[in-house]
Amino acid sequence: MPVRTQHQFLDLYPANRSDKRLILGTIHPPRVDEFSIQFFYGNRGSFWKRLTDSFPMKDFSDLTQILEVLSRHNVWVSDIVKSCVHKNGKAADIDLIDIIYNDQQIKSSILNSDIKEIFFTSEYTFVLFKRAFGIRLAFDRIKRAGTIPSIYFGKDIAYTVLYSPSHMADRGIVNSSKYKEWSTDRKENNLTYSLDDFRSEYYRSAMGFFNN
Predict the structure, then answer these.
(1) Cα–Cα dist 60/129, whole Å
(2) How far apart are CA 49 and CA 66, in angstroms?
(3) Measured between alpha carbons, how far is 45 from 143 in angstroms, rounded to an integer?
(4) Could you tell me if 80 and 168 are in contact, meaning their C-beta atoms sit under 8 angstroms apart?
(5) Pairing of strands 96-101, 157-161
(6) CA angle (56, 61, 66) in 5-degree steps
(7) 104 Cβ partners below 8 Å, 6+ apart?
(8) Partners of 13 in the beta sheet?
(9) What domains can be seen in the chain, in order of their start residue?
């Protein structure tokens, strides 16, 4: 059954002028009251669990700790979708229709802050971002990174498209050339490997600033 979802967190957590990085997702599922953390990506086994696995010296266990870590590293967190209909009433991004973008808040925040780097939590987030701002950029599935030219936000913006933390993305990741290369290398060196290990290593590499 279709469910209209209005974002619950966008206005509660605006960007700061000192922010240097943006982590951008799509939109939360319809039932945020079921979240273990009342914040972006607060459902069980979500993005914060992935970051905990990748950076065990950082504490992402509750909202207070998450906000402290984000502030320390000048990271703003937001979503590209302000409102939408979940076609089947579930969380899958592919089922989002009747989308209203959060483009005004995002553009204003980038222009009025030190943000020069964006981390998209999935390929679909990147697709929606490009649609919202009319950006024409090809996606390199090997590098998963590039630069958004200054014509869009008055400054060059580096970007990285992360592998989605959701288990719904598992099949696509397993079939990716990067995962196949990584797992083959682990096998040849008699090392254990799993999809969770791969994600953790990838997040550590892509978001190494959390190590500081």
Answers:
(1) 26
(2) 11
(3) 26
(4) no
(5) unpaired
(6) 90
(7) none
(8) none
(9) 3-211 (3.40.470.10)
Task: Give the whole-angstrom CA distance, residue 69 versus residue 84.
Answer: 30
Output the DSSP codes for the chain.
--EEEE-SSTTTSPPPTT--EEEEE----S-GGG-SSSSTT-STTSHHHHHHHH-TTS--SSHHHHHHHHHHTTEEEEESEEEEEETTSS--GGGEEEEEE-HHHHHHHHHTS---EEEESSHHHHHHHHHHHT------TTT-EEEE-HHHHSS-EEEEEPPPSSGGGHHHHHTSHHHHHHHHHHHHTT----HHHHHHHHHHHHTGGGG-
Spatial neighbors of 163 by CB under 8 A, at least 6 apart, are 122, 144, 169, 173, 176, 198, 199, 202
Q: Report the candidate in 103, 161, 155 with the shortest Cα–Cα distance to residue 127.
A: 161
For each successive 10 residues of the chain (212 residues), what is the average pLDDT? 90 97 93 86 78 93 94 97 85 84 98 98 95 94 94 97 89 92 92 90 95 91
String of DSSP letters for 147-173: EE-HHHHSS-EEEEEPPPSSGGGHHHH
